């Protein structure tokens, strides 16, 4: 068996070959694995044991072993986070003195932990003048800026992981 590095939501397959036909048992982190026949499938064909995991997640990360008659093959499954992409970029906004500006963007997958709004490179904090909202489980993100004045004109940036989108705020 060989260690695997798999991007989340992709399949993973471990294959263990023995010198003769045996009945193999699979374990994850020392615990006997309970295949469900759909997402986690175990197959055996004579001397070849196969473990297939459809759509891996972080919960699947660990050390897998295939045991049969005193012989044991061991390998690790490493799950890499699927990259985040901006699927709807922000647009420039013009408003008037005392007005509001709404910035919105959408991501390729939900993310709510590693997200940051910036005004001219400085982090935005929630306040009576700034509302931050995410919805659709973290796929869509909004920033509402209120009571704006000409000195508030700036570059607005949203970052999620390594993905970034920016737009200009102009207050007249």
Automatic annotation (TrEMBL):
* Major place of residence: cytoplasm
Keyword annotations of the record: Cytoplasm, Disulfide bond, Phosphoprotein
The places in or outside the cell where this protein is found are: Cytoplasm
Ig-like domain boundaries: 1-85
Superkingdom of the source?
A: Eukaryota
Q: Which InterPro entries match?
A: Ig-like_dom, Ig-like_dom_sf, Ig-like_fold, Ig_I-set, Ig_sub, Ig_sub2, Obscurin/Obscurin-like_Reg
Q: Return the protein name.
A: Ig-like domain-containing protein
> Which species is this UniProt entry from?
Ameca splendens
């Amino acid at each position: 068996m060989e260690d695997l590095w798999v991007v989340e939501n992709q399949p993973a397959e471990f294959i263990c070959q023995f010198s003769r036909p045996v009945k193999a048992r699979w374990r994850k982190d020392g615990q006997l694995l309970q295949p469900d026949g759909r997402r986690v499938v175990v197959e055996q064909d004579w001397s070849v044991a196969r473990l297939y995991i459809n759509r891996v997640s972080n919960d699947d990360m660990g050390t897998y072993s295939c045991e049969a008659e005193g012989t044991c093959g061991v390998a690790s499954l490493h799950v890499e986070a699927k990259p985040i992409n901006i699927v709807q970029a922000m647009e420039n906004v013009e408003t008037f003195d005392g007005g509001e500006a709404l910035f919105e963007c959408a991501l390729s997958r939900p993310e709510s932990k590693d997200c940051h709004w910036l005004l001219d490179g400085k982090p935005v904090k929630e306040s009576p003048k700034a509302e931050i909202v995410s919805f659709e489980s973290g796929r869509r993100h909004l920033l509402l800026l209120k009571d704006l004045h000409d000195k508030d004109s700036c570059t607005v940036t949203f970052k999620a992981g390594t993905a970034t989108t920016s737009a200009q705020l102009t207050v007249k």
